[in-house]
Amino acid sequence: MADTDEFDRYYNGLLYSVMRWDQLTAFWQKLDAGAGWYLYAVGQDVPTTPSAADKVKQFMGEMDELLRREHHEDYCAIVYADNLDAPNFIKIYDPNHLGSSCGSSATKSSILPGWLMSKTPPRELEMNGIVTGQRKRWWQTFLGNMA
User: Fold this and answer.
1) What is the pLDDT of residue 25?
2) Cβ(9)–Cβ(123) below 8 Å
3) 117: Cβ–Cβ under 8 A, 6 or more apart, which residues?
4) Residue 147 pLDDT more than 50?
5) Which range among 59-73, 86-100, 121-135 shows the weakest confidence by mean pLDDT?
6) Which of 10-19, 101-110, 127-136 has the highest mean pLDDT?
7) Averaged pLDDT of the chain
8) What residues contact 34, with CB distance under 8 A and at least 6 apart?
9) Is 43 left (phi over 0), alpha (psi -120 to 50) or beta?
10) Taking Cα atoms as reference points, which of 87, 80, 112 lies closest to residue 37?
11) Among candidates 84, 128, 81, which has minimal Cα distance to 107?
């Protein structure tokens, strides 16, 4: 079993929000698609190898479209990274399953992100809720397009 300490440090560590849509556009452009990103749809199988650069580019493009289409706000604020200029770890919350992305002291659990991009091998995150059929189909289609 892989050591998950580094992953947990990123996952539970300080992350910065991409607040505006124009910042999200700039953020995607800063990412090195060939840097060894693990793409993880929470609630699905945990990836065991990093994705190819073309797959990472495809993911970023499709994710950008999904977020802009389904997050009905004039701000972003559902993408978080350890470093907004040179990220190693990114949490992306599902616009259709937000609750409180920060968690709450009144509840014992916080809402999990929908997707993670990590340069560190991820560990499985246990879903308390369900992954909708729409999200499962999107992810399976995305994976099915892998060459």
Assistant:
1) 96
2) no
3) 37, 38, 39, 40, 56, 59, 87, 89, 90, 92
4) no
5) 121-135
6) 10-19
7) 85
8) 53, 56
9) left
10) 87
11) 128
> Which residues are CB-neighbours of 49 under 8 A, at least 6 positions away?
38
Residue 52 has pLDDT above 90, yes or no: yes
Structure-block tokens of residue 128: 């308390």
Query: What are the φ/ψ torsions at residue 67 (nearest 5 degrees)?
Result: -65, -45
Edge-to-edge strand list for the sheet holding 38-41: 16-17, 79-81, 89-92, 115-118, 38-41
Cα(102)–Cα(99) distance, rounded to whole angstroms? 9
CA distance linking residue 139 with residue 126, whole number of Å: 17
> Is pLDDT of 106 > 70?
no
3-40: burial string, b at 16+ Cβ within 10 Å, e else = eeeebeebbeeebebbeebebbeebbeebebeebbbbb
The structure tokens listed for 141 are: 């289609």
